[in-house]
């Protein structure tokens, strides 16, 4: 797959990317556990078929100490025993928030209640913003054909500094 367009080489794209990255840093700096952030981002990226983002979030999660077993089971988290109840609530929110067009009601009240049970208001704000952000990132990468495979852990943080 050849990249269609490099947003970073375009003035508007580059300015947008800097602000987009700044938004991501707000979430990264929140009290939402980093492992939860990476698992949610990975799951949404899998659903959206974004090879670039799957590559990034698998590698960032592994570099942060996430186990290979858990990373391999994210796609089948509902049928797995390796995730906490809080993580399962976050993964449900990530899936349902990503698949809005597939469900006429969006995120069901049952999922929202599970999220409220496990997370405080600041963490919920981070969860909701993360779902929106990763879906936007997936769309940017898929539309412009950003391939997976070349990401190295820490590249995102280095680019933002």
UniProtKB/TrEMBL annotation:
<protein>
    <submittedName>
        <fullName>Alkylhydroperoxidase</fullName>
    </submittedName>
</protein>
<keyword id="KW-0560">Oxidoreductase</keyword>
<dbReference type="InterPro" id="IPR029032">
    <property type="entry name" value="AhpD-like"/>
</dbReference>
<dbReference type="GO" id="GO:0051920">
    <property type="term" value="F:peroxiredoxin activity"/>
</dbReference>
<feature type="domain" description="Carboxymuconolactone decarboxylase-like">
    <location>
        <begin position="16"/>
        <end position="96"/>
    </location>
</feature>
<keyword id="KW-0575">Peroxidase</keyword>
<dbReference type="Pfam" id="PF02627">
    <property type="entry name" value="CMD"/>
</dbReference>
<dbReference type="InterPro" id="IPR004675">
    <property type="entry name" value="AhpD_core"/>
</dbReference>
<dbReference type="InterPro" id="IPR003779">
    <property type="entry name" value="CMD-like"/>
</dbReference>
